[in-house]
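Hi support team,

I'm filing this because I wasn't sure whether my run with iron/sulfur cluster finished correctly. The job status page said complete, but I'd like someone to confirm that the output block is well-formed before I use it downstream. Pasting the exact inputs I used:
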Amino acid sequence: MKYVKFGKHDFEVSRFGLGCMRFPKIKLEDGTEVINEKEAIDIIRTAIDGGVNYIDTAYVYPGSEVVVGKALQDGYREKVKLVTKLPIWSCTSEEDLQKFMDEELERLQTDYLDIYLLHNLFEANWAKVKQFNAIEFMKKQKEAGKAKLIGFSCHGQLSHWKEVVDANDWDVCMMQYNYFDKYYQAGEEGLKYASAKGLPVIIMESLRGGMLGQTPPENVAEKLAKVPGETYGEKSFAWLINQPECTVMLSGCSSVEHVKENLKTFDKYEPNHLTEEQLKAYDEAREEWNKKTLVACTGCAYCMPCPMGVDIPGIFKYYNDTVRVLDKSQSQTFLYAQLFSHSKKDPTQCIECGKCMSHCPQNIQIPVKLKEAHEACAPKN
Ligand code: SF4
Ligand code: SF4
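And here is everything the job wrote out:
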């Protein structure tokens, strides 16, 4: 495992960080899905045994903090930097900040967090930070030793990202970044801006919700044939690892095999390993992807649940797949009806309440895009 100094702080972290938001699920008798605890604990401990010492979770990843708390028993807690996030958008008063943090500590079975982040400070949530003095709250937690380091995650645009970076003497920040998103949200310039200020930068959406780890359309695959890596996931991480400004790259592993594959990938590459020609191939791959993207949804599900039951990420994934990877042997409209129309999860249920939009880190005009998807995919009677 390759380690790197954590900015100005006197410890090192593994460049591979375990994102705890995509654990395998099991279905209960009543149809609800819960995390498969045994497999999730195996995933977490395999990563730690392999040298990973950065474990990232959040209040809003369903069931995740509880399972992470269980996995970190038996001496594992002391081996890692434990990171979680405060869901600022769910706070309705200053007191809620403490309430959420106390609940998170209890779920995680710990007295302190190594790193505590204000979750997703994109433009809409930034107002709440100011309204509830959340930065002061975080500073107090640090003084009290309840959070050793404090920071934020943010999906905002570049100018907003810079404002948040400059708003406090943060210890760490977290952004969406991968070869597809080089110029999206804060992008490459935002990464360099934060890094130049001495901030460790944690990378989320390294594989853009899994999209960059799958077999891409032919036009993209052709370009990626010129870059290193045995799998598409490896090719994507090779691009990130190349950049020394990327301190830790999170991967939301959903199996032990996935963890093992990542451990190998992160052992293989060093910063600045790519040639000019290979970097150009990634740029060309991004241009090809852009020809195949209808809606910029990453499948994070922050917009869910929709009060009307619309399966927002499911519909957007389907819509994008119509031009990316849909199995062409099945009729597009038949599949759409199976997945959405018949289960009443389709966009016609949308009453345009706008509740989902205030949570979308990608700033997608959700009701508009849902209509577009429905027009393109629904069976025509
Ligand atoms: S705008 Fe539509 S999709 Fe979004 S939460 Fe409201 S009903 Fe659901
Ligand atoms: S619409 Fe936005 S919030 Fe919902 S899953 Fe997609 S990216 Fe996430």
